[in-house]
Every structure is written in C-alpha cells, then in structure tokens.
Write a structure and sequence with these properties.
The complex is a heterodimer of chains A (168) and B (433). Chain A contains 5 helices and 7 strands, in the order αβαββββαβαβα. With 168 residues, chain A is an alpha/beta fold. In chain A, α1 crosses α5. Chain B is an alpha/beta fold. Helix content of chain B is 38%, strand content 14%. Chain B has 17 helices and 14 strands. In chain B, the strands form 3 sheets. Chain B has a 7-stranded mixed beta sheet with strand order 1-9-8-7-4-2-3, sandwiched between helices. A 5-stranded mixed beta sheet of chain B has the order 10-11-14-13-12. In chain B, β5 and β6 form a beta hairpin. The radius of gyration of chain B is 22 Å and the shape is globular. Classes of the chains: A alpha/beta (168), B alpha/beta (433). Chains A and B meet through α2 of A and α1, α3, β1, α10 and α11 of B. The complex binds pyridoxal-5'-phosphate. The site of pyridoxal-5'-phosphate has 16 residues of chain B, from α4 and α5.
Chain lengths: 168, 433
C-alpha cells in the first residue's frame, strides 16, 4: 500500500457513525471500480451484498468490459457509464487511485470511497477539493452490516448501543 | 474503528450487543432455542454458504442469543469480535486453530490452569501442535524459546491456581518483535479487573464458565480478537492469509480485513470442530455479564479480607495473593489489576497433603469442588484433584504442590466465610496434634 504522506492532522483515521450512515443513506447508485467476475473475490461479495440492500451497482473493469457480472454490464471506465453515479467505490491498489479520483470528479460523483486497505491522500485531496466526500480504508459492506446490526449476528463489536427496536 | 468507548464498563456489561429483539420487542435477550434458520430463497442460501452475506444458517456456526454474548464480551474486552465456544478449553483449541499447522509450536507460561497444561503438552500433540512451557517471569526465557516454528505466545493474565500475574506488556512486546500474537487467558481477572488488549494482547480467551457467567451454572468459553494483528505478514498464518480450500479458495484476510480471524473462528473453527456454546448457556452468561462489575467488586473485597486474615492464621504457612503487600507479584498487581487482585488464590497449609485433605473435608460453607468464579465460596486441594495428572515437579512449578489449597472467594457475608475457614483449619490442626 503506497499512501502519500499525511500532511495535516489525520481526518481520515476515523469517521463518525453518523457520517458513514449519512453517506450510505444518501447514495443510490454506486460505480465499483475493480469489480471482478470471479465469485470468490472480495469485490464480488461487496457488489452482491450492496445489490441486496437496494443499491444499483455499476461494475467498472477495463479487462472485463462488455461482460456481465451479477446481471450488470461491465464498463471500461467511469466515464462510459450512462447513468448518474452517486458514489465511486474503489477496489484497486492505492497507487491506481488518482486517475480514478479525477474520473469520479469528472462524472459528478458525490462520494469517493476507497476499500479496506486502500488509502491515497493525494487522490483524496483531488476529490475533496472538487467537493466530494472521501472515505478511505473502509468497506461499505462491513460498515452497512455494522451499522444495521447485521455484523453483530456474527459476534462483532458494532459499537452500537440502543434501547430502540431496530427495523427488521 | 468505533469501539463504543464513550460508554462506561457497567453500561456495556448490560447493553452491548443487546438491543430489543427486532422481531418482538422483547427487552431481555430471547433464547433462540433452534438448530437451524430458513433461507429466503436458493440465492440467499448460496450467498450465506459462500459467506457473501451476513445471516444465520445452522446453530453449529452461529446463533442470535450467542451472538449477543459474543458482542458483549468483545465490547467489554475492547476487541473487534468474539467467538463463543462450549467451554474454556474449546476456546483455547479454537484460538490456536487458525494459527497452527501440524509441526508448529507455541510458547506458554508454565503457570497455568492444570487442565491447560495437560491440553497444551499432551492432547495438542495429537494435532501435531507443541506447547512449550517456560517460566515467563524471566522474559529472556521466552526470547530464547522462539524459533521459526513458533506461532504464538500464551499466558494467563492472573494465573490459576492463583497469585501469579503475567507481565502482559513485556510479553506483548517480545511477541510483536517476532511477528507473533500474544494470547491471554483473562478468565481469572475478567475485563472488569484487567483488559489485556489495552496492554498489547492480540487475542483474549475466556472460560466464561467462571466469573463471566458467575453463578456456577453454565459452561462456556470465548475467543476475542483485538482486530489489530496483521495475519497477512509473511506466510506465517496460511489458514488466514492463503486461499482456503474449504471455501473455494477464498482468502480470509483479503476478503474480511480485520474481521478475518473471528469469521474464520465461526465459519471454519466451529463449523469443522464443532464446540458450539448452547443458546441456554449463552443466555445465562449474558445474565452474568450484566452484574459483572458489582460481583467483581464484592469478590475482590471479600478475597482481600480473607487473604489478610489467613496471612495471620497460625495454621497457614503462606498466602499467595498478589493483593497482599510483600507478595512477589504485588507491583504487577498494582499495574495490571489496580482494582483488586481477583478472588482466586492459594494458601500453603501446615501439615502438608493430609492437612489439605482434612480442610477440604471439614468445610461447611465452602464447597469442595473443581471450579472457580461462583457466587459461592469454593475450595479445592489441587494436588489430589485438578493437578493430579501432573508430576510433582510440574504441579509444584504450576503452584499446586502437596500443601496447597486453592480458594475461590464468593459473595457470602465475610464473617461467615472467615468462620468456616477457621473451623476447618482448626480440625486440620487437631488432626496433626
Ligand atoms: C484459567 C482457566 N482457563 C481455562 C479453563 C478451562 O475452562 P473450562 O473448564 O470452561 O473448559 C479454566 C477452568 O478451570 C481456567 O481456570
């Protein structure tokens, strides 16, 4: 993982639950860069899960452009997607993120999300300067599961304490 | 990651993992007494079996009642996740299972619960795992024992049968210098008295049979993962960092990040070894956790009083309680267990083996049995019971020589506890006279 040096105080070390919740509630369409057609790859897991939760996921992978994965056509680049994209979810190594961030800005995405293990502060700065919200080194599937209580089904510490009944 | 740190220990003991039941609104956690869970459709079933979505399949892997307890214990220890098991011993097996291949080794403190010594040095051998026991009071012993086959270091925070405290911070440092995880058995201290992860431990295990359930009525164990150890380093932990054949080549660390160890514990450990905690026992242990802070306060208050009383008693040769000034481990107790040094400890009785046997047969309030961490005060003579599988040298090294009695001080009125011990010691003295 080749992350650029962190200059200011680290705003990306942690995110509040409310911040993450706001993002996951706000977005409807997600472009997944680095989506794989291979069912046992992490991106496939995340795509399937996010589809189940009602998101429309547009896979992006130049090596597999034109094929379909989980019922969706794979695009060669973010700029080829004909629909409006709310969030770009990056399943690529950190050094590949800057051009993806530039594309995310160009297509008018509102959120740039880098997966667990991926952090690129230069790319984050590009996106943030253009007004995008940036999340790094997190998985939207895990965050969704954590905040919805599903992660607790598997013995994880969700960090959530509540006396309110959750919706099923 | 957010680790509900803004809540106090007592709040977490009662609430962590347990919102009202989503289906019914039941406020106390329901006992989901079921073996299996229906699938929505074939695709949902496939996603669950492939670990692509969260959800319940079969009770050997996960159960909603047990999951509440797992989240509760993970929260109390400040960990990422937990896997509950049928007993403390199976928690130990499950803790090592993702780490060790046949031929691998781990290093353990030699001051352990006797059953753990037997498990590590005899039974684990059948899996091709070697547990090497060393005196961890001398850290260089640990450094010297590490070799390329070593995969973990193990100790008990407060060691059974009592009085001994491991220097967790030092052991964690040695472990991390060598790219190894430190596993701490925190059964005797409980997270109320000590949270090993805060001192650098990577995994914490429990026999929840003891103080966490707390009422001597439910067997159980737990493995807590801090979520901070890098299992991907080198090729040391292939079960976690290499494609898993039992899941069509899925790689746990890559797919699940810091959830990998705990998901492996359920999806492979419990699935294939099978030591699942019963939902009823999970419920009883959840109830125990809710009063953990209150109970531990009384346990340590009573234990300190008994230790002080016995240290002045003419029939008692020595008291090994780290809460006593002058005890070898008193400084470590003040560092790691500042609230109190637990409620299980050993004493040496004048008159040796026979006097020890006489005391356990003469008590009337204390129960003579092989357990600790009950509301009731308990007593045992390890040499004739828990440690009898060991050689005299091994037993003595583990703090369980012929003159040793182990006490687990309960929550009864302190005057009644002291009176019972005094009359039993008196009978042992008359035997000797
Ligand atoms: C410190 C310690 N660890 C582990 C165990 C094993 O736990 P269980 O009896 O629940 O299998 C015990 C039980 O006495 C113990 O005292």
């Amino acid at each position: 993982m080749t992350a650029a040096p962190v200059v200011n105080e680290d705003r990306h070390a942690s995110y509040t639950d409310a911040h993450i919740k706001g993002i996951l509630r706000g977005v409807k369409t997600i472009a997944m860069v680095g989506a794989s057609t291979n069912w046992n790859r992490p991106s496939y897991f995340a795509m399937k899960y996010l589809q189940d939760k009602g998101y429309r996921v547009f896979p992006v992978n130049p090596g597999a452009a034109g094929q379909t994965v989980l019922g969706e056509k794979i695009f060669a680049s973010l700029r080829d997607i004909p629909e409006k994209i709310d969030m770009v979810d990056v399943f690529r190594a950190a050094e590949h993120v800057p051009p993806i961030a530039a594309d995310a800005v160009a297509i008018g995405a509102k959120v740039l999300w880098m997966q667990l293990g991926v952090r690129n502060d230069t790319a984050a700065e590009t996106a943030e300067k253009a007004g995008l919200t940036v999340i790094m080194n997190r998985c939207p599937k895990i965050e969704y599961g954590r905040l919805s209580g599903e992660l607790g089904w598997h013995g994880f510490n969700s960090g959530v304490i509540t006396s309110k009944r959750r919706k099923i | 990651m957010t680790r509900n740190s803004r809540y106090g220990f007592e709040t977490l003991s009662i609430h962590a993992g347990a919102g009202p039941d989503p289906a019914t609104g039941a406020r106390s956690t329901p006992i989901y007494q079921t073996t299996a869970f229906v699938f929505d459709d074939a695709d949902h079933a496939a996603s669950l079996f492939n670990l692509q979505t969260f959800g319940y399949i079969y009770g050997r892997l996960t159960n909603p009642t047990t999951a509440v307890l797992e989240e509760r214990i993970a929260s109390l220890e400040g960990g990422r996740g937990a896997t509950c098991t049928a007993s403390g011993h199976s928690a130990q097996m499950l803790a090592f299972f993702p780490l060790l291949q046949p031929g691998d080794e781990f290093i353990s403190s030699r001051r352990l619960y006797g059953g753990s010594i037997t498990q590590f040095t005899r039974t684990f051998k059948k899996f091709g795992w070697s547990g090497l026991l060393v005196d961890t009071d001398e850290p260089d012993n640990v450094r010297r024992a590490i070799n390329p086959k070593t995969k973990a270091i193990f100790c008990e925070s407060l060691a059974n049968p009592g009085g001994v405290i491991s220097d967790i911070e030092v052991l964690a440092k040695i472990a991390h210098e060598h790219g190894l995880p430190l596993i701490v058995d925190n059964t005797m201290a409980t997270p109320y008295l000590c949270r090993p992860i805060e001192w650098g431990a990577d995994l914490v295990i429990h026999s929840t049979t003891k103080f966490l359930s707390g009422h001597g009525n439910a067997m159980g164990g737990a493995v807590v993962d801090s979520g901070t150890f890098d299992w991907g380093q080198g090729d040391k932990f292939p079960s976690l960092s290499k494609p898993e054949p039992a899941y069509h080549g899925l790689t746990f660390t890559e797919t699940f990040g810091d959830l990998a160890y705990t998901i492996y514990g359920h999806a492979v450990g419990l699935r294939d070894l099978g030591p699942t905690m019963a939902p009823m026992n999970a419920y009883l242990t959840i109830m125990g956790c809710e009063t953990l802070a209150l109970r531990m306060q009384r346990h340590i208050e009573n234990a300190q009083a008994v230790a002080e009383y016995l240290s002045r008693h003419p029939q008692v040769a020595w008291v090994s309680y780290a809460g006593l000034k002058g005890n070898k481990y008193h400084a470590l107790a003040q560092k790691y267990l500042p609230k109190g040094a637990g409620s299980v400890f050993t004493i040496g009785i004048k008159g040796g083996y026979d006097a020890g046997v006489k005391v356990v047969e003469s008590v009337d309030l204390f129960s003579h049995l092989a357990n600790i961490g009950d509301t009731r005060s308990l007593i045992i003579h390890p040499a004739s019971t828990t440690h009898r599988q060991l050689s005299v040298e091994q037993a003595t090294a583990a703090g369980a020589g012929p003159d040793v009695l182990r006490l687990s001080i309960g929550l009864e009125s302190i005057d009644d506890i002291l009176r019972d011990l005094d009359q039993a010691l008196g009978q042992a003295a008359r035997l000797a006279a």
